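[job 0412] stage=fold_complex status=start
inputs:
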Amino acid sequence: MRQSSLFAKTSKTAPSDAVSANAALLERGAFVYKNSAGVYSYLPLGWRIIKKIADIVREEMDALGSNEMLMPALVDKKYLEATDRWGVDVGYRVRGIDEAVDAFALGWTHEEVLTEIASHHISSYRDVPFSAYQVQTKFRNEARAKSGILRGKEFIMKDMYSFHASQEDFDSFYEKTKQAYANVFARCGLDAYCTRAAGGAFTGNITHEFQVVSPVGEDVIYVCPKCRYAENKEVATVVQGDACPECKGVIEEKTAIEVGNIFPLGTKYSDAFNLKFLGEDGVKKPVIMGSYGIGISRLMGTIAEVHHDDAGLVWPASVSPFAVHLLDFTKSGDAAKNAYEALQKRGIAVLWDDRQVSPGDKLATADLLGIPVRAVISEKTGDMIEIKRRNSAEVKLGTINDLI
Amino acid sequence: MRQSSLFAKTSKTAPSDAVSANAALLERGAFVYKNSAGVYSYLPLGWRIIKKIADIVREEMDALGSNEMLMPALVDKKYLEATDRWGVDVGYRVRGIDEAVDAFALGWTHEEVLTEIASHHISSYRDVPFSAYQVQTKFRNEARAKSGILRGKEFIMKDMYSFHASQEDFDSFYEKTKQAYANVFARCGLDAYCTRAAGGAFTGNITHEFQVVSPVGEDVIYVCPKCRYAENKEVATVVQGDACPECKGVIEEKTAIEVGNIFPLGTKYSDAFNLKFLGEDGVKKPVIMGSYGIGISRLMGTIAEVHHDDAGLVWPASVSPFAVHLLDFTKSGDAAKNAYEALQKRGIAVLWDDRQVSPGDKLATADLLGIPVRAVISEKTGDMIEIKRRNSAEVKLGTINDLI
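[job 0412] stage=fold_complex status=done
writing structure:
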């Protein structure tokens, strides 16, 4: 794409109200635009990243055999009343302009909706197990919407729900999902601990969260970097400096960002919606469920927090909006045009900075945007291209083939 | 995909409250699930269709050079107050559970939001023209939500907005978009008339709508099938039986479904948000805008209305959830498994009905689901496959190669 036709203007100064690196750099780089506190637009560059993260998540969920679908954002009162969640404080209420009564909440999670749908689908043991997921805009009335896209009133989430005939079958799927989640975070360039966590509003059971160590995180975790033992503070059995119960490592206390969670739900929702199946033995039994979330927009913010330096963002190639940033310092632009077309022909996503600004401006913008490979064509480079990776200081001369 | 692991159970009977073919067949085929009046879930089969339609729309908008992005569903009061649209009756209002004041409307369109964002991006003539679009869940408080997914309270839309320095540049983009829209509808298997229409709440100018003739449509149009002359009733200069002003054809009155619209916006929104650019002549001028909508979920409903028969749906290949429906009538299932794997290896999207139900059930389900090619493997077919297209009565024996 030609940068001159990209709708997004970068800024040299951070927004005055940004309290975290992700908010400051993502706004300066025109990845996102803040419309209201906790409410963001994803501008074209940021939206390309969201789509890449969502596709990684989809690939891993599809590999589990899960079905993608989409449920409504308008969650009817009837669903939330069935489980006593109509009054949950993070729920937004919706009504028509002249209506006195709220008919809907804005979905922040969809256990109720999918359990009720499943009750029309599941009747026999042959209908389970199955799982379904969606990538959807979700809503939470967050009083402390302050950390950029890490905690918003409106955000993009993947939520998956699974339905099983037995605890053993559920346990097996839960472990497979744990691995799929680890794959997602590793592919996004993040080192996520899988922590034991409390169930929160969803369940009394122990659950698991995926936590990425970062100073802007809101959670406290205790981890052993040696054997990956990890607990959230609220259920912790160890403190900083303890010997890890599973190896000889030393427990460390860290602040961390929660990027995903997996919940055993037991029969809480199947009981509420009378979701039963007829077993092979002719006996009706409740379906055992789990739910599994990944914050897609929060992942983008977390990657920005973990992968940046003073000059700007340093996107991992897997989620970068473009593979190559082509900077043209020549007057004619002919060599850059040839390189641009050659890269496009080979299917390489390239952003060509064809703007009429100084080389210094282009270099600073390239550092800010953080595309993994920078390719400069100037009067000095002749037939060659000056190649530099964003995460390295090394600069070398090469050809188109060295960019691929 | 194996049909046994697909989360979606078809039904032999239509829902009692369905008033249109799209509602009845889409619910019976488990493409969609009705959660509330005008509020639907897209089950896995239906979601595959939505994604296919959305990708066709994306390809055509990208070919126009437009940038994909995503704006918030929570539209801050400040935006709609600036254009006196805070009180528009189709707008839903949002507030927290204990809050007395509505802070947001749920976005049914995004002229205000994008114009304000653009006012931070556009300063010089070098920053225009550009256009941006999103594929997004939209909300309207529809009293008459009754025609399945044709008119919902929550629906999926593509909305695009364009920004220009001159009327001439706008006109040229408007005409190119008209052609891109014609491409979208043709690729979805629809014959859409481009009608002259009134501006409605958006603009006093003449606008254009794309209308597909159907008995369940809510609009009345006057068309000449010979030369494609077409007007909406509310601006019509002709009536049924008139001679078409542009050829010798006879004008016909039709009911039709509006599947898209394109609006010249002039400077209405740029004036409201003080969106100006500095011209090459050093003079500040208002930006000239247009907006362009396509109802993605409505398109799915319209295709269902146009492409069905008494037995079920007849999806055009371009939007079908699968290319081939493989039915297995054998006991061992070996031949079907081989065919399934061979098709998958060649990248053909195949739904394999591996359920333990009768051949009659499988044939009826295949007709209901409407996948373009049906491939039956039975004890009778030997090494061959019985191939039938959903839109033809002809049945013939062939091999895997005849399915590709």
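[job 0412] summary: Chain A touches chain B through 62 residues (CB under 8 Å).
[job 0412] exit 0
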